[in-house]
Amino acid sequence: MSDRLGKDFFCRDVLEVCPDLIGKNIVRSFGGGRVERFTITEVEAYQGTADLACHASKGRTPRTEIMFHGGAHVYVYLIYGMYWMLNFVTGTEGEPQAALVRGVVGCYGPGRVGRLLQLDKSFYGEGLTTSSRLWVEPSDNVIPIIKTAPRIGVGYAGEYWSNLPWRFYAKNQP
Question: 88-94: long-range contacts (C-beta < 8 A, 24 or more apart)?
Fold first, then answer.
């Protein structure tokens, strides 16, 4: 079907996967032959049960179940009753980790990305290596200069967790 990234790419620690996602393409098949590619410009890392900003810090729940299945799955969740947030599960089975997609070229903010991709609950648990609707590919784009910064909107997790430089973004964004 394509040169999609395989399970090995995602079954690594989220802090390795996140910078490697910058510059890759999210491929979305909307049906009717319409396929679009969106270059990733910004992601955030969430690293398991110890990370108080990670949903998995509350344990295994129906919402977080897919995060415990290991890399190469889609984890979507709804915020404010209107925005579907796109995450790629990383790591190995039993060690819940995820990379939140915060931006693609021309679209910044994770809620906006979810709208652009027309995500909904049906994407929860989708396999990135087998999905006919959503996957990630390498791109021919210039390899970006990657910068780090603290994550956004996780003050509830406390000063330590909210100040970690686990947001990765392309310095040379258009």
Answer: 88/10, 88/17, 88/21, 88/128, 88/136, 89/10, 90/10, 90/11, 90/12, 90/13, 90/14, 90/17, 91/11, 91/12, 91/13, 91/14, 91/48, 92/11, 93/68, 93/69, 94/68, 94/70
Q: Which two tokens stand for residue 159?
A: 């000063």
Q: What pLDDT does 2 receive?
A: 56
Q: Note the pTM of the prediction, 2 decimals.
A: 0.94
Phi, psi of 107 (to 5 degrees): -145, 110
Domain boundaries, the chain: 7-170
Question: Distance from first CA to last CA of the chain, Å, rounded?
Answer: 29
Domain 7-170 classification at class level: alpha beta
Chunked mean pLDDT (size 10), the chain, 174 residues: 86 98 97 95 96 93 94 96 96 96 96 98 98 95 87 95 96 63
Q: Which residues contact 137 (CB under 8 A, 6 or more apart)?
A: 2, 3, 4, 5, 24, 25, 27, 37
